[in-house]
Design brief:
Belongs to the cysteine-rich repeat secretory protein family. Plasmodesmata-located proteins (PDLD) subfamily. It comes from Coffea canephora (Robusta coffee). It is found in: Cell junction, Plasmodesma; Cell membrane. It is a single-pass type I membrane protein. It is built from seven helices and twelve strands. The chain has 337 residues and is of the alpha+beta class. It has four domains: 56 residues; 100 residues, 2-Layer Sandwich (Killer Toxin P4, Chain A), CATH 3.30.430.20; 108 residues, Killer Toxin P4, Chain A, CATH 3.30.430.20; 51 residues, no CATH class. The chain is globular. The two termini are 20 Å apart. 26% of the residues are buried.
Amino acid sequence: MDPSKTLNHLHFFLPTFVLCYCMILQSVYTSNLDYKQLVYNHCANQTSEDHTTVSLSSILPALFQELLEHSTKSKFFETNAGNDKVAVSGLFQCRGDLSNKDCYSCVNKLPEVSNKLCSQSLPARVQLSGCSIHYRADGVQTSGLQLLHKSCSGQTGSLGFPERRDAAFASVQECIMSGQGFCEEICESIHVMAQCDGNLGACDCGECVNTAVEIAQETCGYSVSGEIYLDGCFVSYKYQGNEFNGDWNEDKGSFGRNSNKLIAIVIGGIAVVLTGAGLCYFCRSWGRKKDGKYNSVDYVRGLMSPNLPSISIFQQYTSNWQPLYVVPHQLLITNAF
């Protein structure tokens, strides 16, 4: 066998193995990322007056379209739209870990949900898992610290869990205070995310996240997951271990989804390794032409000739003939014997 030729084949196939495995990981991750799930919506109790409603029916589609166009290249955008009767200020925000493609896909879902849930209400806010939209009468200011939504898991951790969660909170708070608008940390098996609206400065962002953390600590207690949404930021945490009471089965199968993802990753890895081993074996067999009665040209020719009975290929290592493998009936080996 010519080692240089086999090495050349491996140089070709090895990057292919790595690429296939990365694609499997990305596919599994994307399929489990439900960033279009509705978290909450806030709509005005009453719709606008008749003349305002008529104006909004033409203003909101234009506003949505402008926001959507910017979602292909930005995670945050704020703009104004209106006419001589009413002016509307609107913005969208995507979660910092989404790609531009996923951000666009998420924002593209917002107008549909907003029209269904809020109709012509003003102000209105819709929050999906991966993005949000907020529009209001132009000139109206918000505090940024108003609590909009909170949720705590019914499943609780054991003694010592709050301390571990608070350590994870401290890690993400430190990240936010360094000037990052989006931070994601895993500490003590607890996954924590925090993000501020793109129009908040570093100090305001830090204050908002600190407030959200305090609310989570006070209201969620021993809950192994929770999310707090304020007007200007959000904080969420989720325990990812399995030592607390039933592997967190109560929270709508969150651990079931993680287990399925892990199983898919493992199966994908095994498939890639087996494929690689098969191709390596093929490369080795391909290189043994100097001692055998067949060669790679004959093998390729055989692939082009169907409808022949199965035959065994033999290779002489010393003075003995031993079967190497059985070729299906589609193969024709011109000088095997």
